[in-house]
User: Fold Peptidoglycan-binding protein from Celeribacter ethanolicus.
Amino acid sequence: MGLAATLLLSTALHAEQWIQIEAQPSLTEATEAARGYAGRLPNVVGFELPGRWNAIALGPYATEAEAEAARLTLRAQGLIPGDSYLTDGGQYRQPFWPVGATLSTLPPATTPEVSAPGATETAMPAEEMPTEALPMALPDETPAQARASERALSREDREALQTALKFAGVYNSGIDGAFGPGTRRAMSDWQAMKGYDITGVLTTQQRAEALGAYQAVIDSLGMAPVADEVAGVTISLPLGLVEFDAYAPPFAKYKSKDGSGVQVMLISQTGDEATLGGLYEIMQTLEIVPMDGPRTRDNHSFSLTGTNAEITSHTEARLVNGAVKGWTLIWPTPKTTDDQTRHQMALDAMKSSFATLDGVLPDAYGEGAAQDIDLLAGLDIRRPEKAGSGFYVDDKGAVLTSAELVASCAKITIDDGYEATVTATEDGMALLTPVETLAPLSVAKFDSQLPRLQSEVSVSGYAYAGRLDAPTLNYGLMAEHKGLSGEEDLLRLAMTTLPGEAGGPLLNSSGAVIGMLAAKDAIPEAQARSLPEDVAFAYDMEKIAGFLSGHGVTVSASDSATSDTDLVRIGRDLTVLVSCWN
Assistant:
């Protein structure tokens, strides 16, 4: 507040008398106290004091005599503390209660009547006072008086009222402080909702009620500005729900407070466009960013929203002066309208208040953090429900894999997160088509000539379900050109395999594809009996070719020999990691 405004406020206060009934060290405590008194007393006003204290007072009274008479009467009724005293308000600054109030809109205080003749100053606890003895909270106004008091509102007061009406669900236009047809209609709707006479102009009492309901939610969130000079971020946070936990680069972590379930991450790291893009990809691998939700990204910023049954999170980050700065809000998925409103209010406040400082979170703060490939800065990395192998069968990125691997998946990805859909399934095989056309390094070249029995064959696959960055090559022998029950479309292998290798290509010594490793659960003999560990099965080339050609994929024949070194390269370029997400 400017010097001129301060002098005007001081002059107005000094011309009247107040009963100071309480002082509190924090605004939150003072607001709660003021709300409590306002439930049973008229003319309750909260003022900021010099320093960090806040006063709750009654008034204004025109004369000292009126104020003293009111003090004695209220003390006699036990409605104010015995140590309440008179003051001219010389130390009072800006009002904080009622929300949006100004001195010009406060009605003059009146001296209350003693509840019974001969009452003394013996205090009766407020909770024992009969309800009918409590004074009205605020006198109502006629429409003309309401318009007069409304004209005295500042632009900030008008914007605050529009915000409160939007919070109440009756206003959906811009917050501009202009009371046009949209705001008047919202006021009428609010009055109808609350059972008041519909005039389209709120009285002082009605404004206080609407603003008080909004302020109560703000108080429950505890929104307060935080300037983290280590991370170089300033932002309003719901400190009623979170508290600082630790620095774990690139995050400053705020954990849930009092079981709220809410978390906040401030993002801060040195970097460029590549760093921003990398963070965009990494964030989507974390459990705190559910898979379902909109994502936007450009060269200088990104946003991620994710929702599942447990949590809803929103992340924003941008490139600023050689650093990536941003934040994430994690919130228990709202189940009620009230909680949806609280979540949206916190989200809007964080979006509008986010700004950057010069500091960048040093990597040294990460020393001593838990080291685990399933963790990033102490946060759980999302892992697929199942992961296994597949291989490219055309130059647009179509993939052949095991049908068991991709059954009942909410989302399927191949390699570095490219999303794919199941085009067809048949007899243990599945054909995947990427959502976006890909350009594989290598495509399967098939050989219809089966190798001799007991000759060496190999399977390329992600045996460890993606925990290694590349596929491994597993060697074995061609044991039989049939299944154990004589199946003509199966090959029996003398090879010990792991579940993650199912769906991978079976290669001959020249690097040509002669089959696809089958999931053991898809083979009847393996389901019915406990077979030796070194028994595996593959679907042969003829079965694969029939399936692929039946769904529009033309197979290519192999025409060249290769070395063992080339075999490893072919397997690596041909094989893809297939992940099933739920």
About this structure: Confidence is low (pLDDT under 50) at residues 1-14, 113-138, 366-377. The radius of gyration is 36 Å.
